[in-house]
């Protein structure tokens, strides 16, 4: 179709290029003087030359500066002769009154080129070497002009008129801000010798322009980055290593922000395919990183513009899909995704292989299926997603697209592990494909495992490093959450090692993070991708090497967007994203294993190092983890303060989890203060946030009902609480959420303990402990042990010794890693044990008890946990009473009373955080 | 009913005024309707029938009516009379004549330049209209000139801005006539301001209803029945034409047909109405009707090209090669550079199985008119035939993007994806097509087949689809048979028997025979036997005996079994039962 038959982009003459040509004429006039007329010094002349060099290099950019911008820049370069330069420029333009003048102009341009073979030029002559970059540029311009038909010349002529008119209308505004700029320039003495024209710098600049006004996160030295920010001013700054950067940026900011206006500007000139594709990829990346904080309508309007200009550029539809995806518009997203693949057959955009290369006849619709599947996944339609992905597997097998297959399998395993799919339903029953059908008799976990292994193997053999890395991470997650069982276990012989293996988790995480070292060896990869687009972009990247070069006939090698990306960004975004993800996973695993400091450290590493390169949802997750940590270990005040910051930052992200965390914290807080009504409300709201679809948002649903049970427990409605907990346990079992099972069991034990049924509680506590053991959940195990000890004590004071022994076994873990509440509970319980032990005498060993109690009451104060605090203080008062220390007793008693009244009237001191 | 005479007079005056303003296509349309009005039998001898449309009779007709051509308000019982506007004085008649002749020679800018200082409404309209057309012409040219590597550049009519400014100023001061309002509506529509455009066009047609151009612009802005109903249109017989065509676009074919039938009472010989009726009938798949109508049309108007692609579609569906080639030859000689002609030729080649050539002609049609919907769809069909799925998908998608209601293209998309082994993906497209045409059994059957594929194998869904197909009166009888088989496969004998019986009934009714019949008979016979309904079983068994082949033997043994069970006789006795 028309979309497939277009040629790779051509070099077109534009008004901006004519401006550059005019300046070039000034720089190297055909009259052979050692120093042309207006220049007063050689360095001045050189400066213009360097400026022109950078201009010619950036000419392949999507956006061309307006005449106004050019004049502004000239003012900086030209110093004392800026007026002359701009006057000459505008005069030259106004002298172009008919198409014939244009023709003559380009004829004149020919004169400034030296002849190709005249190497023996005199020293003081200024000759533009036809093979130099500037010479090449002039030649290309002349050639492009000569190729134009008369209609083309007419169009160029009208666009020149527009170009000049625009500058006229805005030049009035410029004068106002001129003084400011002027004064700044006076500070600087341009020191050209020190300035080394760095190729990379130029290219960054190109890219910077291409990315519009969206900040570009490069892992390059800051100074270099600054160059991209401010075109020339900062360049001077850099050479002097001065401190005036801050002054300089606002002005240059202004100039760079015009790029954004350009987006919707009529004068947007279309460039080559590569540039536009690269630009679109940048945009896709931005959509992904910034989530919906980027206004979706502004992107939409710009896409509309682009589509009008280039109706055959189908990638626009894909971008629109991404945009809609991030603003949670299901129908529009679906529509655009389908439209994109209908038009392009999955071949446009990334590989840029000419249609003759064999893909035009069958298209690559398996990629469409993969994308569609992931879209359904994101919108929470697990069954649809599964069907679509199954079809993707089948089609990729049919057309033997192994890369796509590997990605699809990974996506599928991700889907199966993320979405709760009840093990009873036969999810893959309808598929007959070899990979999945073997799995149909297995449990979901086993299927996930097989899919992951399969995907990993393929990715490994295809050298898809990113996929390998993310598969390793997925595998780590799997190992973390599931007990490895032999796939086919028959009879008693099957080994029954009911334990997860932290070593293998660690190994997988490390393998995942190995990407960084691997990546340097990889040469022809692309750098920009959003998670969704990236998956299939990456798969399409292989054929770049040759086609790009062969199409581009060498001359434009350096300007193609993709290639220079490689050598200027040391770590591409997607790689750092995966590495960042490995840190997040590390944090999560430490959280589960029960090491608070390690979890915190890893999260902090993530937030500081990968925060800006990651997608907004990952960054959000890291923030939330930190806040949770604060709440557990520092109390609510700090947590709420931190939450406020996170809210400002992330509330605009679609599917934001901030609200979720806020509700959780409020619930916890209300529960501690004894405000059960509020707690119940929070709990209900939490449950309302989850999707109603079965199997979607399982985590949230489990969380909500766990909290409901806890609220009921706090309200002393034991049978109700037990009922909720029981049904929750059934759900967890159905969707095989093993780790959650452990905490539900613990909760059940807790319920029985509170209801005074210690005997009934014991088996639950023991079961919970055994679950914790097999999943290596040390902290949870410690807390279960504490409950177990409490249950023993509940059986009678003759078990105090045993309880104390249990407690002391768990003490190191609790004190080292436990949160405030757990620690306080342990302290109080220890005191309780001692006190109920008949052989213990208060008068001799009072310090052992009092120390613990004091510690507990301090920590509970921070937590505002009135009930427990009251208990601790009560015990304290009793001990003091025994010891006969009346004053201390009274103090403890008043404190006790304060807590009790606060507990009884929770509404009196409503939390102002809500 | 409006009197024919008044209609005639109105149209005559309208043609005068429309051609005075160079609204040629509207004048053409009005002219077609004018001669479409049945003559008053009292004025003519019976020999002067419409079909002898000799030049002499037409001349005579006009001569008879010259005497009563004074405009008189028509009094219809439901139609308010709209007085014919009086021609305003053209200050400089000579300049207007010059401008008009320039305009007729397609020198639009020259025409508008001549009228630059004329202030009369008529001159202002012609000047603006000429300017608009000049801009359109330039736009078309620019579109080709600026065609870049990524498709056509966004060429725009550069006169729109100034035209809008001028016309809105005129409208504010009230110095605008209905023609000006029409142009204003067109300009607003081009600028994307649909609501205002609609309002302006409504105002225009309310004050001057005979401008068919205005009506059709208005119709293109009515994309849903809600919009159509919200229009505040005053009653006039032209409104009936408008409604009929709007209904047709909104796929309310029966309503549209009713309107046309009503209009045919006055304009009994209008080619336009006939063609539109044919279109509606075509959508209702009454191909025989369509063929008859088009044959008549071609007899009356042998050089007609408009709508003839529809006729060719019918001929294609009927596989009438010779007729199709005759038609193609005819339109080719009349005007080969019309998208319709290209489509007809493409259809011919497609019927002959020369798909490459067909694609070439469809492409040519699209070169002539990029938005010629049916060419995209037909090209998609050709690519499907050529097994070039991506190209087919691309073509269909373009059709869909031009008109999202084109159920054929949606269906084609679904088919193409199903062909490339992606039935689940295809389902979405089938759903889309069904959404736009829920009463077509073919679409439901296609969807059901999709569900039935071994890759998806959602038989329950397939059954639901087939049920819908049965409700939509499935003419080919696939649905019943499939329903029966599916139920049989799912082990629901009762349901299967019901559907087999229904299918049998249908086949008997249509006098069909075939393997399906035999299958149904065998199933039913066995089914009733196992359920001990021997009477029915026997009936079916004896019917099977009419056929030869293994089934006959089976029927015999079944019969034996039945008799045995019925009477309890030993089987040996049955051996000698004469069959």
Can you lay out the helices and strands and say which pair or pack?
The complex is a heterodimer of chains A (914) and B (579).
Chain A: H1 15-27, H2 42-57, H3 67-78, H4 82-94, H5 99-111, H6 133-147, H7 150-187, H8 199-210, H9 222-229, H10 233-240, H11 245-263, H12 273-290, H13 296-309, H14 315-326, H15 330-344, H16 365-378, H17 382-398, H18 402-418, H19 434-437, H20 444-462, H21 465-481, H22 502-513, H23 515-521, H24 531-539, H25 545-552, H26 561-568, H27 573-593, H28 596-610, H29 616-634, H30 636-650, H31 658-673, H32 676-689, H33 698-714, H34 718-734, H35 738-754, H36 758-775, H37 778-794, H38 800-817, H39 820-836, H40 842-863, H41 866-883, H42 886-904
Chain B: H1 4-20, H2 24-36, H3 55-65, H4 93-104, H5 108-114, H6 121-145, H7 160-173, H8 178-190, H9 194-207, H10 212-220, H11 225-230, H12 237-249, H13 253-264, H14 271-283, H15 287-300, H16 308-317, H17 321-334, H18 339-351, H19 355-368, H20 373-385, H21 389-402, H22 407-419, H23 423-436, H24 441-452, H25 459-471, H26 478-489, H27 493-510, H28 515-530, H29 534-544, H30 550-567, H31 571-575
Describe this protein with a few key phrases.
heterodimer; A: 914 residues; mainly alpha; Serine Threonine Protein Phosphatase 5, Tetratricopeptide repeat; 42 helices; 70% helix; elongated; B: 579 residues; 31 helices; 0% strand
Summarize the structure.
Chain A is an all-alpha fold. Chain B: One of its GO terms (biological process) is protein ubiquitination.
Main sheet summary of chain A: none
Strand content of chain B: under 5%
Class inferred from helices and paired strands of chain B:
mainly alpha
Rg from alpha-carbon coordinates of chain A = 35 Å
Task: Note the total helix count of chain B.
Answer: 31
CATH topology type of the domain at 273-350 and 363-423 and 444-486 and 498-518 in chain A: Serine Threonine Protein Phosphatase 5, Tetratricopeptide repeat
Main interface: chain pair and counts: A-B, 47 and 35 residues
Looking at CATH, which topology of the domain at 1-35 and 90-141 and 158-222 in chain B would you report?
Serine Threonine Protein Phosphatase 5, Tetratricopeptide repeat
CATH class of the domain at 273-350 and 363-423 and 444-486 and 498-518 in chain A: Mainly Alpha
What CATH architecture of the domain at 273-350 and 363-423 and 444-486 and 498-518 in chain A do you see?
A: Alpha Horseshoe
> Any low-confidence stretches of chain A, pLDDT <50, length ≥5?
1-9, 172-270, 349-360, 423-440, 486-496, 521-569
Rg value of chain B: 31 Å
Organism (chain A): Raphanus sativus (Radish)
Domain Anaphase-promoting complex subunit (chain A): 317-417
Family (chain A): Belongs to the APC5 family.
GO cellular component, one term (chain A): anaphase-promoting complex
């Amino acid at each position: 179709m028309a979309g497939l038959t277009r040629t790779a982009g051509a070099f077109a003459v534009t008004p901006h290029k004519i401006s550059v040509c005019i300046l070039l004429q000034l720089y190297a006039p055909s009259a052979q003087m050692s120093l042309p007329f207006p220049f007063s010094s050689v360095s001045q002349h050189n400066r213009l030359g360097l400026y022109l060099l950078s201009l010619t290099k950036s000419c392949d950019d999507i956006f061309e500066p307006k005449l106004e911008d050019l004049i502004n820049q000239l003012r900086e370069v030209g110093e004392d002769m800026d007026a002359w330069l701009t006057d000459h420029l505008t005069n030259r333009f106004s002298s172009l009154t008919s198409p014939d003048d244009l023709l003559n102009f380009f004829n004149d341009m020919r004169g400034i080129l030296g002849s190709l073979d005249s190497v023996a030029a005199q020293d003081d002559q200024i000759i533009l070497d036809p093979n130099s970059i500037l010479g090449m540029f002039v030649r290309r311009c002349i050639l492009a002009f000569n190729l134009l038909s008369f209609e083309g010349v007419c169009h160029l002529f009208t666009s020149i008129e527009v170009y000049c008119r625009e500058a006229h209308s805005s030049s009035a505004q410029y004068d106002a801000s001129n003084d400011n700029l002027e004064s700044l320039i006076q500070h600087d003495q341009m020191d050209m010798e020190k300035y080394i024209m760095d190729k990379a710098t130029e290219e960054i600049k190109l890219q910077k322009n291409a990315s519009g006004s969206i900040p570009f996160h490069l892992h390059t030295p800051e100074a270099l980055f600054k160059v991209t920010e401010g075109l020339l001013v900062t360049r001077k700054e850099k050479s002097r290593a001065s401190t005036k950067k801050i002054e300089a940026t606002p002005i240059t900011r202004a100039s760079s922000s015009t790029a954004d206006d350009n987006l919707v500007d009529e004068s947007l000139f279309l460039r080559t395919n590569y540039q536009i594709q690269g630009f679109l990829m940048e945009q896709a990346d931005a959509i992904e990183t910034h989530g919906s904080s980027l206004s979706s309508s502004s992107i939409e309007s710009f896409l509309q513009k682009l589509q009008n200009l280039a109706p055959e550029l189908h990638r626009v539809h894909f971008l629109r899909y991404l945009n809609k995806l991030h603003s949670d518009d299901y129908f529009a997203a679906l529509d655009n995704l389908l439209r994109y693949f209908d038009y392009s057959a999955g071949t446009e955009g990334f590989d840029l292989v000419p249609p003759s290369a064999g893909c035009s006849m069958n298209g690559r619709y398996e990629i469409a299926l993969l994308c569609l599947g992931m879209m359904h996944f994101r919108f929470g339609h697990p069954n649809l997603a599964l069907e679509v992905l199954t079809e993707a597997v089948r089609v990729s097998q049919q057309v033997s697209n192994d890369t796509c297959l590997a990605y699809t399998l990974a996506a599928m395993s991700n889907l199966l592990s993320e979405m709760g799919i009840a093990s009873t339903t036969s999810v893959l029953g309808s598929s007959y494909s070899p990979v999945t059908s073997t799995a149909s008799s297995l449990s979901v976990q086993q299927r996930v495992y097989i899919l992951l292994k399969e995907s990993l193997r393929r990715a490994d053999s295809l050298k898809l490093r990113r996929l390998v890395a993310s598969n390793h991470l997925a595998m780590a997650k799997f190992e973390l959450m599931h007990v490895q069982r032999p796939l086919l276990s028959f009879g008693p012989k099957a080994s029954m090692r009911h334990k997860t293996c932290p070593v293998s988790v660690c190994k997988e995480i490390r393998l995942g993070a190995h990407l960084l070292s691997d990546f340097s060896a990889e040469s022809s990869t692309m750098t920009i991708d959003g998670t969704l687009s990236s998956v299939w972009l990456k798969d399409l990247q292989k054929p770049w090497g040759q086609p790009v070069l062969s199409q581009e006939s060498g001359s434009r090698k350096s300007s193609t967007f993709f290639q220079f990306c490689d050598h200027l960004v040391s770590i591409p975004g997607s790689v750092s994203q995966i590495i960042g993800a490995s840190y997040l996973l590390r944090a999560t695993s430490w959280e589960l294993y029960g090491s608070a400091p390690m979890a915190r450290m890893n999260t902090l590493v993530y937030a500081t190092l990968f925060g800006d390169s990651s997608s907004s949802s990952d960054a959000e997750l890291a923030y939330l983890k930190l806040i949770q940590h604060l709440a557990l270990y520092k109390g609510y005040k700090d947590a709420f303060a931190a939450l406020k910051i996170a809210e400002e930052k992330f509330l605009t992200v679609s599917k934001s989890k901030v609200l979720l965390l806020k509700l959780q914290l409020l619930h916890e807080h209300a529960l501690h203060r004894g405000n059960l009504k509020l707690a119940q409300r929070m709990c209900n709201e939490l449950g309302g946030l989850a999707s109603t679809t079965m199997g979607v948002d399982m985590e949230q649903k489990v969380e909500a009902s766990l909290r409901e049970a806890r609220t009921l427990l706090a309200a002393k409605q034991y049978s109700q609480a037990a009922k909720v907990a029981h049904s929750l346990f059934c759900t967890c079992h159905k969707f095989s959420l093993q780790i959650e099972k452990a905490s539900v069991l613990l909760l059940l034990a807790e319920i029985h303990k509170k209801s005074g049924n210690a005997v009934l509680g014991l088996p639950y506590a023991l079961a919970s402990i055994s679950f914790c053991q097999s999943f290596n959940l040390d902290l949870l195990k410690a807390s279960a042990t504490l409950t177990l000890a409490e249950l023993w004590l509940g059986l009678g004071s003759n078990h105090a010794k045993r309880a104390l022994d249990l407690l002391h076994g768990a003490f190191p873990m609790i004190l080292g890693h436990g949160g405030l509440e757990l620690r306080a509970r342990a302290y109080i319980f220890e005191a309780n044990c001692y006190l109920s032990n008949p052989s213990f005498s208060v008068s001799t060993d009072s310090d052992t008890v009092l120390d613990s109690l004091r510690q507990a009451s301090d920590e509970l104060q921070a937590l505002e946990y009135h009930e427990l605090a009251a208990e601790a203080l009560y015990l304290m008062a009793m001990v003091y009473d025994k010891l006969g220390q009346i004053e201390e007793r009274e103090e403890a008693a008043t404190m006790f009373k304060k807590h009790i009244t606060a507990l009884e009237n929770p509404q009196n001191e409503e939390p102002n955080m809500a | 009913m409006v009197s024919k005479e008044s209609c005639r007079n109105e149209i005559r005056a309208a043609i005068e005024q429309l051609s005075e303003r160079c609204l040629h296509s509207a004048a053409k349309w009005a002219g077609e309707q004018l001669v479409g009005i049945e003559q008053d039998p009292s004025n003519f001898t019976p020999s002067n029938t419409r079909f002898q449309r000799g030049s002499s009779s037409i001349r005579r007709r006009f001569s008879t009516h010259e005497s009563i051509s004074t405009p008189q308000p028509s009094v219809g019982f439901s139609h308010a009379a709209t007085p014919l506007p009086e021609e305003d004085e053209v200050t400089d008649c000579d300049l207007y004549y010059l401008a008009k002749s320039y305009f007729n020679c397609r020198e639009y800018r020259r025409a508008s330049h001549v009228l630059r200082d004329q202030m009369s409404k008529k001159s202002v309209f012609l000047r603006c209209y000429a300017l608009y057309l000049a801009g359109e012409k330039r736009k078309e040219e620019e579109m080709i000139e600026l065609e870049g590597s990524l498709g056509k550049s966004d060429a725009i009519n550069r006169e729109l801005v100034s035209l809008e400014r001028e016309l809105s100023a005129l409208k504010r001061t009230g110095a605008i006539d209905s023609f000006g309002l029409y142009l204003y509506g067109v300009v607003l529509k081009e600028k994307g301001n649909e609501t205002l455009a609609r309002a302006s066009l409504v105002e225009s047609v309310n004050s001057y209803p005979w401008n068919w151009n205005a009506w059709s612009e208005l119709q293109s802005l009515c994309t849903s029945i809600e919009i159509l109903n919200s229009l505040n249109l005053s009653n006039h017989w032209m409104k009936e034409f408008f409604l009929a065509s709007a209904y047709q676009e909104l796929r309310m074919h029966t309503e549209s047909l009713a309107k046309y039938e009503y209009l045919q009472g006055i304009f009994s010989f209008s080619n336009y109405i006939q063609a539109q009726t044919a279109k509606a009938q075509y959508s209702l798949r009454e191909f025989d009707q369509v063929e008859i109508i088009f044959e008549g049309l071609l007899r009356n108007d042998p050089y007609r090209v408009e709508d003839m692609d529809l006729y060719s579609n019918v001929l294609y569906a009927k596989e009438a090669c010779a007729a199709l080639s005759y038609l193609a030859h005819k339109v080719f000689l009349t005007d080969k550079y019309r998208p319709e002609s290209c489509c007809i030729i493409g259809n011919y080649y497609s019927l002959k199985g020369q798909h490459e050539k067909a694609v070439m002609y469809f492409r040519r049609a699209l070169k002539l008119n990029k938005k010629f919907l049916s060419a995209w769809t037909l090209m998609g069909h050709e690519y499907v035939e050529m097994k070039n799925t991506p190209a087919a998908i691309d073509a269909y998608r373009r059709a869909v993007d031009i008109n999202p209601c084109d159920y054929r293209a949606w269906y084609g998309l679904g088919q193409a994806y199903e062909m490339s082994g992606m039935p689940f993906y295809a389902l979405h497209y089938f759903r889309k097509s069904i959404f736009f045409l829920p009463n077509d059994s073919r679409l439901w059957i296609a969807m059901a087949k999709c569900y039935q594929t071994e890759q998806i194998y959602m038989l329950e869904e397939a059954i639901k689809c087939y049920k819908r197909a049965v409700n939509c009166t499935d003419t080919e009888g696939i649905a019943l048979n499939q329903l029966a088989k599916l139920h049989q496969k799912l082990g629901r004998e009762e349901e299967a028997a019901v559907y087999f019986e229904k299918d049998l009934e249908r086949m008997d009714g249509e006098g069909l025979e075939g393997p399906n019949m035999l299958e149904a008979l065998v199933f039913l016979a066995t089914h009733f036997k196992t359920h001990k309904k021997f009477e029915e079983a026997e009936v079916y068994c004896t019917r099977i005996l009419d056929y030869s082949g293994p089934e006959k033997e089976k029927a015999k043994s079944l019969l034996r079994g039945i008799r045995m069970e019925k009477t309890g006789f030993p089987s040996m006795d049955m051996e000698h039962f004469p069959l």
